[in-house]
Amino acid sequence: MKIATYSELDLKNHVFLQQSDEINQILKPLVDNFSLNSFNFHKTYHDNAQIRLTNTPNWCYEYLTDKYYQESIFELPAHNYQKNRYIWSNIHTHKRILAGARAHGINYGITFVEPVDDGCEFYFIGTLIDNPEIINHYLSNFRLLEKFVATFHKKAAHLFEKIEPRRVIVEDWQNNQVCYNPAVSVDNLKYLAEISEYHFTARELDCVPGLLKGHSAKQVAENLQISFRTVETHINNLKQKTATANKDELLRVLHCVFSC
Predict the structure, then answer these.
(1) Shortest CA distance to 35 belongs to which of 145, 152, 128, 174?
(2) How far apart are CA 245 and CA 44, in angstroms?
(3) Does the N terminus or the C terminus of the chain have fewer Cβ atoms within 10 A?
(4) Do the Cβ atoms of 204 and 238 come closer than 8 Å?
(5) d(CA 81, CA 74)
């Protein structure tokens, strides 16, 4: 397994960036039906190795050589992630990354985060069409897009045979200073809470993802970079609002409310 920085690799000739024609064949149903013609995939394994596929190699080359991966919320250890979907324009910490993608004509899109047994997979599906209204079309057909993600491994099996032996562990990956802050998806948490008739504050919701992962109050405090006492206060407020007597009861309620 290669250990290097991406800027040290011969990316122009690397297998990760050499599969555009095959990706375009797999992508054809999305192009024909949704005008989704930009695709980037990466997987981070539990040992921090990575593999990548793209049909926009010039953008991927810039992303890796200019070390955008040190700024992305999708470039952290695999255990950080739960199954999720992100509209790119809602990721406020990605302004420089999104500007770089737009310079290559890549505009509105969605990222699918898919935890798997040996790591986590990320599917970045976008359009080369500059039309913000197209997002509504994607959202109206969300289940069909998820079906594409679910079938991708089968369709791309021959590509995985090529790239998996070339996994890379990136030495400067740990320089990523992004905090994978649950507030990034706080709107989703707020929605799920409100339809269950719970009115949690944004700060209380910040604590929920960590609690659902089984983290202690101390771990939640460290991840959110706030004091342990503050987290304890938020947890006590969550107990009060959910009418639960202890943390085990609280977790049962939270899992019920936020599982989707």
Answers:
(1) 128
(2) 39
(3) C
(4) yes
(5) 9
The SS3 of residue 1 is: coil
**What six digits make up the tokens of 255?**
């899992």
End-to-end alpha-carbon separation of the chain, Å? 37
The phi and psi torsions of 4 (rounded to 5 degrees) equal -165, 175
Q: List Cα–Cα distances, 31 to 22, 122, 123, in angstroms.
A: 14, 19, 15
Helices (H), the chain: 20-34, 57-65, 95-103, 134-140, 142-155, 157-163, 186-195, 202-212, 217-224, 228-242, 247-258
Q: How far is CA 41 from CA 23, 103, 150, 192, 232, in A?
A: 10, 19, 13, 29, 38
CA pair distance 70, 64, nearest whole angstrom: 9
Distance CA 201, CA 7 (A): 43
The C-alpha angle 79, 87, 44, rounded to 5 degrees, equals 25
Residues 6 or more apart in contact with residue 209 via CB below 8 angstroms? 82, 182, 189
Is residue 54 within 8 Å of residue 23, measured between CB atoms? yes
> 76 φ, ψ to 5°?
-120, 170
Q: What is the pLDDT of residues 155-214, one digit of tens each?
A: 999 999 999 999 999 888 767 766 554 444 566 788 888 888 899 998 999 899 888 878
